[in-house]
Amino acid sequence: MDSKLKITVLYESWGEEEETAPEPAKKKRGSSKRRKKREKHDREEIFEALEKLGHEPTYMVLDGGDKSLTALAKHETDLFFNLVESYAGDDTMEMHVAAFLDLLGRPYTGAGPQGLYLAQDKGVAKKLFQFYGIRTPYFATCYQGKLDHSQDIAFPLMVKPVSEDGSLGIDKDSVVSSVKELMERIHYVQEEFNSPALIEEYIEGREIYAGILGNQNPEVLPMVELDLSRLPEGMPKVAGTEVKWEKDSEAYKVTKSAPAEDLKEETQELLASTALTAYRILKLRDYGRIDMRLTDKGEVYVIEANPNPWLSSNSEFFMAAKKSGRSYADMIAEIIHFARTDRRQRDKLHLS
Question: Of 55, 102, 164, 331, which one's alpha carbon is 20 to 30 angstroms from that of 152?
Fold first, then answer.
């Protein structure tokens, strides 16, 4: 384990009710077991893990103002545990926070600006996948009537924002089967998100997630599957907002993630090698998650890549880490270790 460090858990507060950094959760004597527990933010669990590991954690919040950037530049710490996913509510600014830390020469966990950009622009990522021979759905991108890229694609199609994550812009209406539905969905994406629309072939199959830890010799963790087989009849099997976030919806209640079962050894090897290649192509580092579809023919399609994925104890990433024999603190300790390796080595990631 790394020696005792001052580690700052860096996150953004845009859209949250609380104005100040939270204190780590403390147990209260005599508290009712029946009281419904507030679901912890991943930053709180990370904070507690850092304390358990013997480090000195603190919080720092970026509120989207110039003063917060000045404070960030002046802040003294051994390492930033970077959980920032946007700046001033703009998801496309995520990479600029990492770039700002690079300009300051400050070490931080997770992907650098290159990896964040390549993974966020799904159109660019898919072009890279195709160049390196990785299966990904054929696609087209368009914005305000202009085609940036187009391949021969056929219905049914999936339509989503080109740069959003967390399933934003994806729901039961994202899969379209006619020109009318396609045009309506493109209009929705452009109006709602002011974003180009990514139009891709809908791939029927199992939803498989591959968590990856490391840099020079990254390790692919055990596969995790989001079981979509019990979704309501007629609902497309996609991990949309109903599945991910709407806790009162039927879709949310009948879907769950768990370590993937019944995978043949050669299928596991194909999933792992595909995920690892995608991880390296997009210059991800320290940790990441690759989302894939496995067809009934045994074909593996990369859907998208997630740099700096959610690290909650309920997350698919920790589910995979736990399956590999790691505790939550073990996982956090490894991410810190990878982030503190020589920075020049971190950026010299080549395809093997």
Answer: 164
